[in-house]
Amino acid sequence: MTSPGTARLKALDSDHHLHPFTDFKALSEEGSRIITAASGVYIQDADGQRMLDGMAGLWCVNLGYGRQELVDAASQQMTQLPYYNTFFKTAHPPAIELAAELCRLAPDHINHVFFTGSGSEANDTMLRMVRRFWALKGKPEKQWIISRENGYHGSTVAGMSLGGMAPMHEQGGPCVPGITHIRQPYWFGEGRDMNREEFGKVCADALEARILELGPDNVAAFLAEPVQGAGGAIMPPDSYWPAVKAVLEKYDILLVIDEVICGFGRLGEWFGSQHYDLKPDLMPIAKGLSSGYLPIGGVLVGDRIAETLVQEGGEFYHGFTYSGHPVCAAVALKTLEIMQRENIVERVRDDLGPYLAKRWATLADHPLVGEARSLGLMGALELVADKATGERFDSSLAVGSMCRDTCFDTGLVMRSVGDTMIISPPLVITHDEIDALVSLARAALDETARQLAASFHLTSLTSESCS
Ligand SMILES: *Cc1c(COP(=O)(O)O)cnc(C)c1O
């Protein structure tokens, strides 16, 4: 039952609140689900329903909800010094300590960080740094940044231009010039007519072809997520990254790895690029950096770039009011401390990731599932109309959103990207909670199949192993 208080909130929300990535009209008609509390890996809505948060908020609440230590860190810093900037030759202890700690945790060749307020700002910063670097090196014509279709790098003008989300490009353009996109290494979606590893090489070849088309002397950097997150939890074939690295080395092109999701333990290493042994020149970070408790992001800057910017750069005309915000930095620092004390990264790599992989794979037998994949604590299910051929549902059926809504009703937050269902739970999830997540996912798949069968008189789509 919806209480009068909740009804009032829903009405006000419909009347006044424009939500991110939302069809405003549709939402104002349907009303939103209002989340009021959370603890551990569970969230609760205003109607009292409890849901297992399979998305860790938005890929960020890695330490789970209700961490009093993070609250205390924020509160103490608020009392001590709620704000001061880091412009004009000033600094404060939280930003300094956080910078040092991040560089200690990052790969050896990374020893500097520039703070931002978000992942989008981190990518904007990265873009300016990359072009500035090449200008300082006497190669100002090295301007082009190559990124990938269906990559996600944020929603500011630079972020959406760097990202490869076509629907975003169609709104509010034109995009930032000098950015081009190549095909993504999405085997299930685009490569099933060849074997995975062959397909990985074909996608790396597309990078070399684009570099040659633009002229290697005009290409500044290649930007990618280690595993595409918002695009659908897409793990590239094993052949992909080594081949990409070889191409970039051949033409002296910088590698930027967007660690906003994969950083801070998601793939079982501090940074996703370590899982793939990438040694990037720059790494935008955000989200898990503060476990989502407060907004903070940054760019980790490799020595090659930092040396040039520091020694030869002069003033870099860039920064944000909230770059290195003391309260956000204090919470991020505490987040990193807790992650180390509780061995979270090692646990994801050695225990939770392998356990999720085993349990998640059991969903592959479901009649709606064409592929179940996972790496670390990120997973995806490809929903298909025909399991044998992998044929997709007609997109007008919006089976993915049907499944997502069903998940909500079943008590699980699982996101849909088209007909790909994705999870990215808090890194503190237990084995029992992983079991619960997988059975809730199966129940939601069954219910989705039932709804499909009811509307289209399809049969035999429900799972046999669920009773
Ligand atoms: C979320 C995300 C961003 C943007 O971060 P915001 O904090 O939303 O601006 C950038 N890159 C990746 C890979 C992301 O997942």
Account of the protein in words:
Keywords: Aminotransferase, Pyridoxal phosphate, Transferase. By secondary structure, this protein is α/β, with parallel strands linked by helices. The protein folds into 2 domains: 33-66 and 344-466, Aspartate Aminotransferase, domain 1, CATH 3.90.1150.10; 69-341, Aspartate Aminotransferase, domain 2, CATH 3.40.640. Helices cover 43% and strands 15% of the residues. It is built from 17 helices and 15 strands. A 4-stranded mixed beta sheet has the order 1-2-3-13. The protein has a 4-stranded parallel beta sheet with strand order 6-5-7-8, with helices on both faces. The chain is globular. It starts with a helix and ends in an 11-residue tail after the last helix. The mean pLDDT is 96. Pyridoxal-5'-phosphate is lined by residues 59, 118-120, 123, 152-154, 225, 229-230, 258, 260-261, 286-287, 297.
Give a nutshell description of this structure.
The chain has 467 residues and is of the alpha/beta class.
Tell me the layout of helices and strands.
Layout: H1 4-16, H2 24-30, E1 35-39, E2 42-45, E3 50-53, H3 56-59, H4 68-80, H5 93-105, E4 110-116, H6 119-136, E5 144-148, H7 157-162, H8 166-169, E6 179-182, H9 187-190, H10 196-214, E7 219-224, H11 240-251, E8 254-257, H12 272-275, E9 282-285, E10 297-302, H13 303-312, H14 326-341, H15 344-361, E11 369-375, E12 378-383, H16 399-410, E13 412-413, E14 415-417, E15 420-423, H17 431-456
Parallel strand pairs: 3-13, 5-6, 5-7, 7-8
Antiparallel strand pairs: 1-2, 2-3, 4-10, 9-10, 11-12, 12-15, 14-15
Helix pairs in contact: 1-2, 4-14, 5-14, 6-13, 10-11, 15-17, 16-17
The structure holds pyridoxal-5'-phosphate (PLP).
The site of pyridoxal-5'-phosphate has 17 residues, from helix 6.
